[in-house]
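Aim 2 progress. For Pseudouridine synthase, the working sequence is reproduced below.
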Amino acid sequence: MKFPCRLDKFLSHLAELPRTKVKAGIKKRYVTVNGVVITKFDYSVNENDHVTWQGKPLQYLGKRYFMLNKPVGYICANSDDMHPTVFDLLDEPNLKDFHVAGRLDIDTTGLVLLTNDGDWSHQITSPKKQKFKTYLVETQEPITEDALQQLRDGVQLHNEKQPTLPAQAEQLASYSLRLSICEGKYHQVKRMLAAVGNKVVELHREKIADIELDAALASGEYRELTDLEINIINAK
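Predicted structure tokens for this construct:
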């Protein structure tokens, strides 16, 4: 939401009411701004104004940022008719302007960042910004040194014109590795492992840039980001 903002738009957004109902309420003198009854639909509201609707304060909370430990079975979308979404796990007001900054597949677990700040999330999702996403990968077949080197060099994915950008790949055990990539192609990690003759069995994201999944968050739990974490993304 950009300020100054029309009063009817502000109320519709914060009270989650249709514009027609908001305008009717304004006419009926349901609305005050800084203690004064306002009856003009296009009255300009600023971010710090104190607005009430039928005596109930409506506060614009500004830009917000959350981390979630995503469980299996949830999709990274605002709504879906078939599956629960990550937003079903957040008990927060006014989530309709939120989006996921770097989606995960339904069967992938771990760190998801959610925000209503589009400029901030672009810093994460744009390959040009070189923000690495780090995954713990369990594989069906043993991991070879040749496969690790291919991942580090970049592999050619099916139906892609260019190979993937160089990844950071560290073997953890015979069937597991830590993989960091700075792109977000469709099913990228799974396709990368397929390209080197293997298959992903389990996938968990543990880190985006220098934001690490909080070890205190159980599966399905979330918390607000700290100022330090928010500023990590904006750092050059």
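The longest helix spans residues 7-15. This observation will guide construct design in the next reporting period.
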